[in-house]
Structure formats: C-alpha cells, structure tokens
Amino acid sequence: MAYGAGFHNAFIAPTQNEGLRFRQSSVDGLRELEYIEGRNFDVVIRHAGSTSELPKAAEQLVQLKPDVIFAAVSAAALAAKQATSTIPIVVGALGNPVALGLAESDSRRPSGNLTGIMPYVQGLPAKQLELAREIVPSARKIAIVTDTSDIKATPQWDEINAAASKFEITLVGADARGPEDIDPAFRKFKTERVDVVIVLQASFLILDRAHIAAAAAANRLPTVCGYREHVETGGLISYGVNLEYCFRRAATYTQRHSSRRFTYRVPYQARTSHQPQNRQGARPHYSADAARPRRQGDRMM
Fold first, then answer.
1. Do residues 87 and 69 make contact, with C-beta atoms less than 8 angstroms apart?
2. Which of 163, 182, 236, 240 is found 20 to 30 A from 209 (Cα to Cα)?
3. What are the pLDDT digits (tens) for 192-223?
4. Domains in the chain, start-ordered, CATH in brackets?
5. How many Cβ atoms sit within 10 Å of the Cβ of residue 220?
6. How many helices (H) and strands (E) would you count in the chain?
C-alpha cells in the first residue's frame, strides 16, 4: 500500500478473525488520542494462516519500513523481533518477555525495541480456583485445561497446583494443543467425575473457545475461564483480564513511538484490573463465609 500523511503503522496477527477484532480495539484506542486511520496514520495488515507463517508475514512488513509494528500476541511479536531490531514493536497481549527470549531481563523498562501489555497477572489463577470452589462448594476434583506449548501456561498451572494443595483438591489436567484435543479432554473429565473445569489463559484456548464451550456443555461441566471472551461464546464464568482493554491501552504506546518519543525504554505494563463475568451479565452468588475472589477494581459485566 502507499503510505499517506502521518505515521505508518503495521499490524500482524496469527489469524484474521481474532486479528480484525483486536485491531479494531487498538484503532479505537488511537481514536481516543485523536489519531484517525486514513487521516493522520495509515496501517498495513498481515495475517498468517498459521503460527509457522508469521516469520514470513513479519519480513514482509519490515520491508515496508513502518514507524511502528503492532503485534497482536507473543508469537507475532517473536516473529517481528526476529525480523527487525530497530523498528519499535508494541504487543497487545505479551507473555513473559524474558522466557520468550524477547528481552534480556524482567526490568520494567526494556532495553530492546519491544514493549507492550502483559495480561497475565500473578495471583489470578488462585482466584480462579477460589471462584470454582464457590460455584461448586463441594468440589473435590477440579479439571484444568492447559496448553503446555504456550509459555503462559506453566506458571498458571504451578500457582493453581499450590493453591489446590491447601484445600485437599485433586487436579485433573488435560493438555490441549489443537482442536483434536478438546473433545477427548472433556470426555476424560466426565469419566473422572470432575466437578468444575478451569480453562487457563493460552492463545490456542481462546482461539478455540467456542469448541471448548460446546464440549463443556455436552458433558454438563461448568467452566471458569481466564479470558472473558470465553463467556461470550458459551463459557459459564470468567475471571481475568479484558483483552480488548489491553489492545486499547497498547495504542498509547503506539502513539508514543509514532510521535518519535520512542527511546527503546517504554516500560512493560501489566494489566491488573480483573473482570468477573457470567453469561447473563449478572453478579454470581457468593456464600457468606466464602472468600470473595474480588478486589477493588473488579467489575461484573
């Protein structure tokens, strides 16, 4: 595409459907900063058919010499980082940058050309376990859907496992790395008579959330999810971050870079306001003696 006036933004995401949705959130965030697409900034978009195709898409974007590359998720950020060490990269949903090899230290101010919003919040998985116990107070066996290929999954599992040991709860795990793993996982949960299922924060799990909701419904299992998007497609309750907010907030970083105020030291930001939500948009019932998995700043949609 031919760039016009203003700054030049590139957007890269693994899939078109999710990419378009969250790209709109970033565009909305820029609009709040009085940046209007087509007026004072242009954007070129690349969607990869699969994660393996992201490096090629990133190389194509770098050749266009944009002012900023906006990467939707960590996999897209990794591809962009491998393609350039000079063009600023902003990530809407960033995993652990050190574990991903995207940064040399966990400093709040990175030394490289990448920054973004980190939606994983320490302490959140334990709160999801608390909420699961409130949904089914008699629960003694809780299932965990994870994706061990996702760098975000291991710390979540470790935190839930530590919390479960305090309440004498047995965890039943299932590793879902692809669509073919979802139905067998929920059939396993039903066979083992689990009481409730926790769906961890992972990129594949949110992409296949409709399949997860259908499998849970077919096996009559309630779910507690790490992203509210799961609830929008049939999950029971979520307790976690608002990804659309993360992308809107990341627009601030895009604006900083585009205005030439980028110093390669724009700090990472963790999203710390959690949003419990159920399908009816109502506040779930909390028993009087239960520890409420909420804090100031939580909001029920």
1. yes
2. 163
3. 999 999 999 888 898 899 999 999 999 999 99
4. 7-120+242-270 (3.40.50.2300), 124-240 (3.40.50.2300)
5. 8
6. 10, 12
